[in-house]
Amino acid sequence: MKVAPIAVVGASLAGLTAVQALTESPAVTAVTVFGDEPHPPYDRPPLSKEVLRGVWDVGRCALKPVEDPRVTWRTGVTVTGLDQDGPRLRLAGGTAESFPGGVLIATGATPRTIAGADLDGVHVLRSLDDALGLNADLDRLPGRVVVAGGGFIGAEVAAACVERGLNVTVLEAQDAPFERVLGAEVGEAVMAEHRARGVQIRTAAAVAALHGPGRVESVELADGSHLPADVVVLGLGVTPCVEWLTGSGLTIDNGVVCDASLAAAPRIVAAGDVARWPNHRFGEFRRVEHWDNAIRQGRHAALRLLAEHGYAEKQDFTTVPWVWSDQYANKLQVVGSTVDFAEVVVAHGTTAEQRFVALYRRGEHLVAAVGFNNARLVTRYRRLLARPVRWNDALAYAASGAGPASTRPGDH
Amino acid sequence: MKIDVDWDLCDGNGVCAIEAPGVFEMDDDDELHVLKEDIEEEERPQVDAAIRVCPKRALSLHP
Ligand SMILES: Cc1cc2nc3c(=O)[nH]c(=O)nc-3n(C[C@H](O)[C@H](O)[C@H](O)COP(=O)(O)OP(=O)(O)OC[C@H]3O[C@@H](n4cnc5c(N)ncnc54)[C@H](O)[C@@H]3O)c2cc1C
Ligand code: SF4
């Protein structure tokens, strides 16, 4: 018995990786991939880095296609609904198609916006078309660029603007940049070069609305004050693309709710930015919006679907999340989960020398390591974090000379 | 099979060294070192995983 036709919804990183994994199985007969963007799959991280800095043409973002006669790419097609019975997909235009082999949901996430976001000169940065639009606007050498939201994307956009010689202000709602995810000390260290290069960073400055007659002219803050702006880039985070699943009977709650194996319902699995699942390694039930997670989940969800047909083993998906961000020549990496951390210790190097590793405690355990210009130690901590690590062991490990050795605490 | 690193693309983030520690290693200057170029059959799953997760798509295998 071969596997009946399968559909993948979302033709981006998680979807493409899923297709790759599916085509590795000779039992798979047909895979149809739906993507609402007109483009074949491309990589998003360079959009806020190489592309915005002007060192890459957008063409270089293209992801390596899967060339397999069993795969049909239907780009430019929006899926508008899912019936679990079938399972069936409803498509824009009113047609419906059944995929008895199952459906893999990989519709990702979309940027949050605010009132006035439709004005000219206001940009989000998620898609290739967004990047082209922003590039074109920055090429006009606007006098004042305002980045709303001091997260990874906001910081990368600010860095690219500085390298283009533009005047940039970053508005951050918290009291310190990256305060909630990295803690104030590490957050400040990450923004130090931005400050040194003239980026204005305004903290406790939540953005309320954008104003202008047609083109944006000012940003209104929550305290009622206004800030002039010629270009505004919104880096306010993303929300999962789940509207199309309304009425599907799937549990939708800040993402497609999955079990630990990434299954949402019989023959329906989810992967990437859209998927919320219990990660048993960290005792968390959330979505992870990172490149590495989309790659790993895309593959895992594909195998999970094949497991229902007896062609793979059903396994739980556990991961040590990993994300990187490049700003100027600085490389930031976060491994593990800093969510609700209770304590931060800079365990290697110093924030002043701009090369360090900070460790994060939650309860009695090490839950994350953040490296700034220190990839070697980050790889060691990522390996270490594959299993629970007690905080005291982690500190002892860090103190034991040249950083953690390749052995684990407790191994001897 | 031989592993090939495109050094113009590699940015030394070390993800491959986590997937295949017997093949890739990071040095103190955050430079990637390839410990062995010839990949044995037993190492293929690890090396394939490293190729998949390299964010810069800098790795490839050649006969
Ligand atoms: C500018 C930028 C920079 C980034 N930099 C980094 C970084 O440095 N490091 C890092 O770890 N991560 C980074 N990320 C995050 C990373 O790119 C995402 O985690 C990853 O793209 C998630 O992949 P995905 O396939 O789950 O979702 P997405 O890439 O969002 O893809 C989902 C696709 O589904 C399509 N879709 C949605 N709804 C429908 C529908 N109803 N019908 C058909 N198609 C639909 C969407 O249009 C989209 O093409 C960055 C993201 C952006 C935008
Ligand atoms: S994963 Fe890729 S980019 Fe990172 S160090 Fe290895 S080869 Fe270089």
UniProtKB/TrEMBL annotation, chain A:
The Gene Ontology CC terms held by the record are:
cytoplasm
One matching Pfam family is: Pyr_redox_2
Residue span, FAD/NAD(P)-binding domain: 6-298
Record has Signal as a keyword: yes
The residues forming the signal peptide are 1-21
Give the protein's cofactors: FAD
| Molecular functions (GO terms) | oxidoreductase activity, acting on NAD(P)H
Looking at the record, the residues that make up the Reductase C-terminal domain are 322-393
Q: Which UniProt keywords apply?
A: FAD, Flavoprotein, Oxidoreductase, Signal
Q: Which Gene3D superfamilies match?
A: 3.30.390.30, FAD/NAD(P)-binding domain
Tell me what this protein is called.
NAD/ferredoxin-dependent reductase-like protein
The organism is Actinoplanes lutulentus
From TrEMBL, chain B:
What cofactors are annotated for this protein? [3Fe-4S] cluster
Classify the source by domain of life.
Answer: Bacteria
Which residues belong to any copy of the 4Fe-4S ferredoxin-type domain? 1-29
> Gene3D superfamilies, per this entry?
3.30.70.20
Q: Which GO terms describe its molecular function?
A: 3 iron, 4 sulfur cluster binding; metal ion binding
Read off the SUPFAM superfamilies from this record.
Answer: 4Fe-4S ferredoxins
* Keyword terms of this UniProt record: 3Fe-4S, Electron transport, Iron, Iron-sulfur, Metal-binding, Transport
**Protein's UniProt name:** Ferredoxin
